[in-house]
Amino acid sequence: MRIGDRFYIGKDSRYPKRKEAHLHLLKKDSHYNKFIQKSYNKYKEVEFRPIVVFSDNVSDKTMYEVEIIMIRDYKNKGIPLMNLTDGGEGGKGHKKNEFWYSTMRKRMSGEKNH
Fold it and tell me: In sequence order, what are the residues at sequence separation of 6 or more whose Cβ sits closer than 8 angstroms to the Cβ of residue 92?
């Protein structure tokens, strides 16, 4: 994803649905990544472009590893990113628990999270 001069590198095997989920949250001004939301609010334009397209049978582990490598490479090249972690399953050693996943599913579906 690109907004202004900044990029966000993400992975998902359900790309079209993930793209729509990002757009839905951005338009509602409720994206969980506040950096992405502020950039969207400023520029009002977002570009989605797959960088790597995997075969249907690629493992989550492979996608996590590629995401980590790409984020690291972009940072090493000085390309400005909106990623809040180093990628993979939470980056920087932070593992996401079921509560986190449940919260994200609710936010992305438009449910209120109490």
Answer: 85, 86
pTM for the model stands at 0.71
CA distance 77 to 74: 5
For residue range 14-58, list pLDDT tens digits in order: 778 888 999 999 999 999 899 999 999 999 999 998 888 888 888
Please compute Rg for the chain using Cα positions.
14
Residue 66 CB neighbour total at 10 angstroms: 18
Phi, psi of 20 (to 5 degrees): -65, -35
**One-letter-per-residue 3-state SS of 28-88:** CCCCCCHHHHHHHHHHCCCECCCCCCCCCCCCHHHHHHHHHHHHHHHHHCCCCECCCCCCC
